[in-house]
Each structure stands twice: as C-alpha cells, then as structure tokens.
Amino acid sequence: MARAPRPSPDGESGAALAAVLVVVAVMSVLAISVVEAARFSTQRTGNQAQMDQTRWYLLGAEAYAIRRIDQAATATATEAVNPSDWLDRTLTLPLDNGSMQVTVASGDNCFNLNSLVRQEEGGPLVASEDGQARFSRLLALLGIGSHRTLAASLADWIDSDTVPGLGGAEDEAYGGGSAVALPANHLLGDASEMRSIAGFDASVTSRLARLACVRPTTSANVIAINTLRPDQAPLLAVIFGPALPLASAEALIRERPLGGWSTLDAFFADRRIAPIQLSDESRAMFTKLSRWYVIGIRVNFGDVTETSVALVDTAAGRGRVVRRVFGARVANNLL
C-alpha cells in the first residue's frame, strides 16, 4: 500500500508562525483597547475631579457674595450707601489654575409675573385684577399690542381654576385633553414658561425679558429706588401711571442723588413725582432696602468652565438662596 506523504517541516513552521501572528495581533488589539480604556478612564476621572472642584468654587463664591450682601444690607439700613460701588459690577478673583467672576445684581427691579394672581393662606390661586392691570400697563409701555388679552392669558395660566377670564385662555384654548401642554394652574417657576402661554410669541417674550422675572410669591416686587437703572424706568411709570411719562421716569433715575435717596420721603419729594397723588398701596411698592438679589458666577478652572445663577432672599434679615441653577447664562433677571 502507498503511504500518504508526510507534511514538510517548512509547512508546519509556516502554520505555526501564522498562528503565532494571529495570537499576537489579537493580543495587540486587546492591549491597545485596554490602554485606551485606561487613558479615557484617567481623563474622565481628571475631568470629573475638575468639575467637582469647579462646583465647590462656585458654591464658595456664592457664599462670599451672600456675606457681601448681608454686610451691605446692614450698612444701608443705617447710612447712605452707593449701591453702584458693588452692584452690577463683576469681581474677578484669581485661582491657581484659572479664575472666577462674580456679579451681584438687584433682583427687586423687575415685574414678578406671579403677581397676576393672589392667594389667601392655604387657599387657591385667584386672578388678581390689580396685578393684571399693572401688567397690562407694562405691556402697553413696551409697545406690545393686545396687552389686556395677554394679561388675562397669563393669569389664567397660573390661577387654580379652569374657567377663562375675560379675554383669557384655559384648557380648551390649548386643545383640551389632546393638547401637548395645558395651563399649569400653579405659580411659574421660570420666566421661560411664558413661551407656552397663548399669545406670548418670541416678539413679546424678547421685549419682556429685561423687565420680567419670576419670584416664589404672589406679591408684587417692591421697587428698590436706589438700584433702579434707566432701562428699568417702565417699572416706575407702571406705578405712577400716565402722570409720569417714560422720559421723566428715566430722567428721575439718571439724576438720582449720589449715594442714592437717603429716605423714601426724599424720593417722593422729587419735583417730577411730588405732585402725583399715590394711594397708600402704591407708595408701599417702593423701598430703600433691597429684598432680592441675583448672584451670577463664572468659574474657569483648568479645561472646565462652569456657571451658576442664584436667587437670594433677604426678607428674614440674612441672605438665603431660594433657587440655584447651574449652567445658566449669567444675567440680571435669569430666575
């Protein structure tokens, strides 16, 4: 019988070499994957550490700003302090591997959108005629048409019932049960919610952006006379009515005494507003001491940049953060 030919030594060597090369290639791919995973894990850990450190810097800067607010409030209560020395100014502080910027702005001088309703203790939210009238006047001063309808729509969005006010909009106006969004029947949490309300298109919201805000209360914001800016003059004109034209309101702010008005009586004695008869309720809408402040912070640390905005309430005598948003754009009326 014929014997089968035996494999040559060269053939066996070639097969073994190919097997070794395959194993080496697989091990190389695995090694590269392990190294890349380790590199990404190390980078991710480093980034997370930077982000954590940045967050602590933000909170530390916020605490520093609140101490500054408390000190200024104490001083303002006993003497005339020029708020322009520290409000709306950006303080830059160096860090070992970066820097941070801190800005404190008054949070009083804006129209609280939640003031279009009122609420008795423990009761439902009810549309406020006074709040709607003030908001309607503000819209008119800004040249926004259909101001009464817009005021009613906003009040209906917030109030607890589902019955539309005169010219307002409740569930049926948004499509009823098939609607993507229905009136919240709750206080607004952010001014951006205006975009969901009937009639509040981009033109309306953009013109309101610099004067409207949201506070966690149905009370109208009390105007801090010594922190008003000329571009906030419509807020004065809303309270004083047609007797104080917008140009006169701007001039009143621009010609404010150095260091601000020492008392509310000094403010009301100004020749532009002294002849105007105001109700006690309207006079109570002005204050020398601010209640609300907005703290904007930007931290650049290593490769990480982070921002935060905090709303501070000083009604209890000390600054207390009632809302904080990380990653928010730093501006005056963000909340």
Span between N and C termini?
A: 98 Å
Q: What's the total helix number?
A: 8
Based on CA atoms alone, the radius of gyration comes out at 31 Å
Strand content: 15-25%
What's the mean pLDDT score?
Answer: 85
CATH topology of the largest domain: Ribonucleotide Reductase Protein R1, domain 1
Description:
By secondary structure, the protein is α+β, with helices and mostly antiparallel strands. It has three domains: 53-107 and 292-326, GSPII I/J protein-like (Pantoate--beta-alanine Ligase, Chain: A,domain 2, 2-Layer Sandwich); 111-216, Ribonucleotide Reductase Protein R1, domain 1 (Orthogonal Bundle); 221-288, Orthogonal Bundle (Ribonucleotide Reductase Protein R1, domain 1), CATH 1.10.40. Helix content is 38%, strand content 17%. It contains eight helices and eleven strands. It has helices at residues 9-78, 129-141, 147-158, 202-208, 233-240, 246-254, 264-268, 280-283; strands at residues 90-95, 98-106, 111-112, 117-119, 125-127, 212-213, 223-224, 286-287, 292-301, 304-313, 320-326. The strands form four sheets. It has a five-stranded antiparallel beta sheet, with helices on one face. A two-stranded parallel sheet has the order 3-6. The chain has a two-stranded antiparallel sheet with strand order 4-5. Helix 2 (129-141) packs across helix 3, helix 2 crosses helix 5 (233-240) and helix 5 packs across helix 6 (246-254). The longest helix has 70 residues, at 9-78. The termini are far apart.
